[in-house]
């Protein structure tokens, strides 16, 4: 079959447009991701004593550990002149005049009198089920409170939470209970993660359906099964877990996506391999020769 000049030009144009579309899509994703990253630093909510707090906690979530059920954060502290030490007034970090304990999530940070309150890292509890990946949702509970002095007197505190970890979408809701500041974080996967994960699952299904269609056509049209067909299908079978793990921020194997895609895809490919083996074994059987006529 000869390909005419017009068809070659058509195929070349289609290939160029496809490559251009892919490059443009990836560039658009990169630009949008950079803008979202910049805007995430400006998205903050405030909870607690907003009028005249003695302690202001600036908290930025850095990552979401769905397996461990925690939100990893970095916290900074600012003190009002009423509770700050006069000894280190020109220091980069504020220092409390008396001992100060600040509790954030599951962590408690103890600062001695006149000790610089440097940045701290910690974690807050996360509620949710990652088995519904990539459509899973979580609720983070970020609490903050502070006490000072040997008697543990409550200190007026303001909690400011801002920032969105990569790969997630977060909506903050501030709450106030007595001497404690609380921010609820409703967390879900961002559209980019959902789109890429869904595309990978669709591709896995199409590869399995193409393999079973090819195996069926070989059987229907009584074509010989070559070793290359068997090798390719076996390679595709064992490559599927790796393709599945390429989904962004994918949890361990066993979630709902695996029950809907990976398990069935591997079963289909395994049946294709089995069918190839049966055909090849049958072809190896000797053909019965007819008795020659005398």
TrEMBL record:
<feature type="transmembrane region" description="Helical">
    <location>
        <begin position="259"/>
        <end position="278"/>
    </location>
</feature>
<dbReference type="Pfam" id="PF14494">
    <property type="entry name" value="DUF4436"/>
</dbReference>
<protein>
    <recommendedName>
        <fullName>DUF4436 domain-containing protein</fullName>
    </recommendedName>
</protein>
<keyword id="KW-1133">Transmembrane helix</keyword>
<feature type="transmembrane region" description="Helical">
    <location>
        <begin position="228"/>
        <end position="247"/>
    </location>
</feature>
<dbReference type="InterPro" id="IPR027948">
    <property type="entry name" value="DUF4436"/>
</dbReference>
<keyword id="KW-0812">Transmembrane</keyword>
<feature type="transmembrane region" description="Helical">
    <location>
        <begin position="196"/>
        <end position="221"/>
    </location>
</feature>
<keyword id="KW-0472">Membrane</keyword>
């Amino acid at each position: 079959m000869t390909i005419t000049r017009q068809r070659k030009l058509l195929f070349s144009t289609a290939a160029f447009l496809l490559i251009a579309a892919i490059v443009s899509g990836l560039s658009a994703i990169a630009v949008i991701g950079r803008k979202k990253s910049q805007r995430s630093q400006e998205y903050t909510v405030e909870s607690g004593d907003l009028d005249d707090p003695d302690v202001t906690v600036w908290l930025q979530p850095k990552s979401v550990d769905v397996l461990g059920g925690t939100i990893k954060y970095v916290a900074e502290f600012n003190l009002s002149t009423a509770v700050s030490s006069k000894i280190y007034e020109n220091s980069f970090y504020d220092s409390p005049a008396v001992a100060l304990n600040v509790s954030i999530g599951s962590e408690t940070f103890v600062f001695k009198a006149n000790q610089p309150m440097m940045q701290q890292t910690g974690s807050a509890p996360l509620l949710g089920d990652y088995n519904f990946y990539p459509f899973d949702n979580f609720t983070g509970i970020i609490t903050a409170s502070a006490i000072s002095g040997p008697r543990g007197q409550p200190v007026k505190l303001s909690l400011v939470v801002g920032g969105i970890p990569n790969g997630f979408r977060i909506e903050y809701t501030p709450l106030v209970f007595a001497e404690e500041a609380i921010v609820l974080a409703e967390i879900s996967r961002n559209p980019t993660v959902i789109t890429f994960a869904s595309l990978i699952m669709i591709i896995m299904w199409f590869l399995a359906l193409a393999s079973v269609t090819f195996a069926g056509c070989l059987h229907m049209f009584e074509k010989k099964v070559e070793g290359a067909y068997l090798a390719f299908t076996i390679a595709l079978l064992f490559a599927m877990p790796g393709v599945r793990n390429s989904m962004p921020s994918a949890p361990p194997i066993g979630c709902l996506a695996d029950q809907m895609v990976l398990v069935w895809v591997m079963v289909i490919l395994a049946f294709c391999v089995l069918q190839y083996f049966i055909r090849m074994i049958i072809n190896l059987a000797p053909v019965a020769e007819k008795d020659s006529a005398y």
